[in-house]
Design brief:
By secondary structure, the chain is an alpha/beta fold. The chain folds into 2 domains: about 5-75, no CATH class; about 115-320. Helix content is about 40%, strand content about 15%. It has helices spanning about 5-15, 40-55, 60-70, 85-95, 100-125, 185-200, 225-235, 255-270, 275-285, 305-310; strands at about 30-35, 75, 130-135, 140, 155-165, 170-175, 210-215, 240-245, 295. The strands form 2 sheets. Strands 3, 4, 5, 6, 7, 8 and 9 form a 7-stranded mixed β-sheet that branches. It has a two-stranded parallel sheet with strand order 1-2. Helix 1 crosses helix 3 and helix 6 (about 185-200) packs parallel to helix 7 (about 225-235). It is globular and about 70 Å long.
Length: about 325
């Protein structure tokens, strides 16, 4: 295979825009392609481009070899919770390298998981408790359609904070886009405050609210979220208490929201959308019998909770140990 063909393959692979991972990991250099792609689909697009230019394409095996050896790329798969603690313990068991301290940590971890699930089930069954679970969905790229030229275009990233209320059994989706927000704690705090305002609008008699989320510290367990909730309580004095509860790391307790994500992803797989507005139309069709409440986040909904939180001694709070 001549060098020119190799460079053409590399240029073609590089022409696909990368998207953000769901996880904000600064210590990884891996980049992600949108989930509608795979190597075979990319190769088909490469052959189409060669045909248009009158060039001879390389074999699929060679294209795949270059993709695997010359690039650090993966495809943006839907978020799945994997427990680092359990994975490490199972690996140690297989290698017969389990120490007494490993056994103790795993026993405590499993006890924490059991206690967490019992607590979550208690909140589900308590009809007098206003319980809301929420989670950030995988990054969604827009537009999305089976049009070959779209795969090479830079995409607009869309973000969903999805939520489910235990009393009404109703799902909510708070939609934002990259031009006005991201996935940081300040963005999530602003969306969470808007969600709680909607909950309070539906339940004006509520005096206590319980929230459930995952244990992601940069997004959910931090001083920015803590200040946002304190500020919400100050502005809504009829609410006496908000209790925030977190899943044991690696073991999700927000299955209702996970189920919403699954239905949304299935709807997207069968639909095309070209803008945030047309994406909203897809969301409205996900659950026709009990349609999701859609809230389009506006720039006026976002607050700088981070700057305000720095005025308080939140460094004294061990957020990483809160459970």
């Amino acid at each position: 295979m001549d060098a020119n063909q190799k460079e053409e393959v590399k240029a073609h692979i590089s022409s696909f825009p990368v998207v953000e991972s769901h996880y904000c990991r600064a210590n990884t250099e891996r980049q992600y392609l949108e989930p509608t792609l795979n190597v075979l689909r990319m190769y088909d697009l490469y052959r189409l481009k060669c045909s248009e230019n009158g060039d001879t394409p390389v074999k699929e095996s060679y294209y795949r070899l270059i993709f695997n050896t010359e690039f650090n790329l993966s495809f943006h798969a839907p978020k799945k919770d994997r427990c680092d603690q359990c994975e490490a313990y199972e690996t140690a068991v297989k290698q017969n390298m389990v120490s007494q301290s490993d056994e103790y940590r795993q026993t405590k971890h499993m006890a924490d998981k059991t206690a967490m699930r019992q607590e979550r089930q208690k909140d589900r069954e308590d009809k007098d408790t206003l319980t809301v679970c929420f989670d950030l969905q995988n990054v969604i790229s827009c537009p999305r359609a089976e049009i070959s030229s779209f795969f090479y275009k830079r995409k607009l990233n869309l973000y969903n904070l999805t939520a489910h209320s235990s009393q009404t059994k109703k799902g909510s989706v708070l939609c934002g886009q990259r031009t006005m927000s991201g996935r940081g704690a300040n963005d999530i705090a602003s969306a969470l405050v808007k969600l709680l305002e909607r909950v309070l609008h539906d339940h004006p008699e509520a005096t206590e609210i319980v929230t459930w989320s995952d244990s992601c510290e940069p997004q959910n367990r931090n001083s920015i979220i803590a200040f946002a909730i304190a500020d919400f309580l100050t502005r809504h004095p009829q609410v006496k208490r908000i209790t925030m509860k977190y899943s044991t790391p690696g073991h999700s307790a927000v299955q209702e929201v996970d189920n919403m994500h699954s239905h949304i992803e299935k709807a997207m797989a069968m639909s095309e959308f070209y803008s945030p507005l047309s994406y909203t139309c897809v969301l409205l069709k996900v659950n026709r019998n009990n349609a999701y409440e859609i809230v389009q986040m506006k720039s006026t909904y976002f607050y700088d909770f981070q700057a305000c939180s720095k005025l308080f001694q939140y460094k004294q709070v061990p957020f990483s140990e809160v459970s």
